[in-house]
Design a protein that fits this description.
- This protein is 53% helix and 9% strand.
- The chain is α/β, with parallel strands linked by helices and 299 residues long.
- The chain folds into 2 domains: 48 residues, no CATH class; 235 residues, Beta-carbonic Anhydrase, Chain A (3-Layer(aba) Sandwich), CATH 3.40.1050.
- The N and C termini lie far apart (65 Å).
- Bound molecules: zinc ion.
C-alpha cells in the first residue's frame, strides 16, 4: 500500500512539475509562486520607491511654495488658469498616495462663497490643505487643523487669507459700534476672536469712521489670527523658527481676484512678541498618546 501511495505522490508531483513548475519544489508554496514575478518586477519596484523618495525631497521650500501660490493667482486673475491636478489620473494618485508628499500649502480662509481657495490659486486635488471658517478666525479647532497641515501634511507654508467685504468682520464692527443686530446663539463665540482686531483698527485709525474702518479691521484680523495661532501653538512656532515653514498673511479682493500679500516681516515681529509673552502655550504635544495614529497624513 505504501508503495502505491508513494507512486501516486510521485506521479502527482511529476504532473504538477509539468503543469505548475514552481509549485512542486517544496517549501513555501505561495512565496515561490510569486518569486518569478517579484524578480521580473524587481527593478521597476526599486525605481518606484526611488521616485517616491525623490518626490518627497522635491517638495518646495517655503519661498518656492509662496511663488507657486502667487503664480497660480496671477493665472487666475489673467483668466489663463491651467486647472492642474484635477483629472482622473490625479484622483487615482490621491487614492493611493499620501497627501503629505504633495500638498504645498495650508490655507485658512473665510467660508465666503466668493473665496474659492483652490480656484483662486489655480490649484487642484491634493495641492492645498484648506481650513474654511467664517471670518478666517484661528480658534482651537482651526489651530488644530493648522497643526495637521504644518506638522503632518508637512506643507511648507500657511496662508492666513482674509478678504475684502468680509461679512463677519463687518458684523463685528457694527457690534462694536453699537449698531449691530441680534445674532444666532453660536455666532458670538465664533466671531469674538475678531473683536480685538476691530478695536485695534479703530485705535490705530481714530479719524476713520463707520464702515470705512472695515478694510483696516480685515487686515488686523489677519494679524490677529496669526497671533492667536502662535499664542496657542508651540508646534507652529517651532516649525516657523526652524525654517521648515513660513506663515504669511494675505487679503483676497473679491472684486478682482487678486491676492494682496502682506509683509512677511510682520509675521516675524508677531512671533517675536509671542515668544516674549509669558501667557503663550508651552506644551507642544497633547496628552493621550495618539500621535502615531494622527501621523498618518490621511486627514
Ligand atoms: Zn468673510
Amino acid at each position: 500500500m505504501n508503495r502505491i501511495i508513494k507512486l501516486i505522490i510521485a506521479a502527482s508531483c511529476i504532473f504538477s512539475l509539468i503543469m505548475f513548475p514552481v509549485a512542486c519544489g517544496g517549501g513555501d508554496d505561495t512565496a515561490e509562486h510569486k518569486a518569478p514575478v517579484k524578480k521580473a518586477e524587481a527593478k521597476p519596484e526599486v525605481k518606484h520607491e526611488a521616485t517616491s523618495v525623490a518626490e518627497k525631497k522635491a517638495k518646495p521650500s517655503p519661498d518656492e511654495a509662496i511663488a507657486m501660490l502667487k503664480a497660480g493667482n496671477a493665472r487666475f486673475v489673467d483668466g489663463i488658469s491651467n486647472h492642474p491636478n484635477i483629472n482622473r489620473a490625479r484622483l487615482v494618485q490621491a487614492g493611493k498616495e499620501n497627501q503629505g508628499d504633495h500638498a504645498y500649502a495650508t490655507v485658512i480662509s473665510c467660508s465666503d462663497s466668493r473665496v474659492p481657495v483652490e480656484l483662486l490659486f489655480d490649484a487642484g486635488v491634493m495641492d492645498i490643505f484648506v481650513i474654511r471658517v467664517a471670518g478666517n478666525v484661528c480658534d482651537t479647532d482651526e489651530i488644530g487643523s493648522i497643526e495637521y497641515g504644518l506638522c503632518h501634511v508637512n506643507t511648507p507654508v500657511l496662508v492666513v487669507l482674509g478678504h475684502t467685504q468680509c461679512g463677519a468682520v463687518t458684523a463685528v464692527t457694527h457690534a462694536v459700534h453699537g449698531t449691530g443686530h441680534a445674532l444666532e446663539r453660536n455666532i458670538p463665540p465664533l466671531v469674538d476672536n475678531i473683536e480685538p482686531a476691530v478695536r485695534l483698527a479703530m485705535s490705530k485709525h481714530p479719524d476713520v469712521h463707520g464702515n470705512d474702518i472695515v478694510p483696516h479691521a480685515i487686515e488686523e484680523n489677519v494679524w490677529q489670527g496669526i497671533e492667536d495661532l502662535f499664542m496657542a501653538s508651540p508646534a507652529s512656532r517651532e516649525i516657523v523658527t526652524s525654517g521648515k515653514a513660513k506663515v504669511v498673511g494675505a487679503i483676497y479682493d473679491v472684486g478682482t481676484g487678486i491676492v494682496n500679500w502682506l509683509p512677511e516681516s510682520k509675521t516675524t515681529d508677531i512671533l517675536e512678541n509671542v515668544e516674549a509673552n509669558p501667557d503663550r502655550a508651552m506644551d507642544a504635544m497633547a496628552g493621550g498618546g495618539h500621535a502615531e495614529e494622527a501621523a498618518g497624513g490621511g486627514h
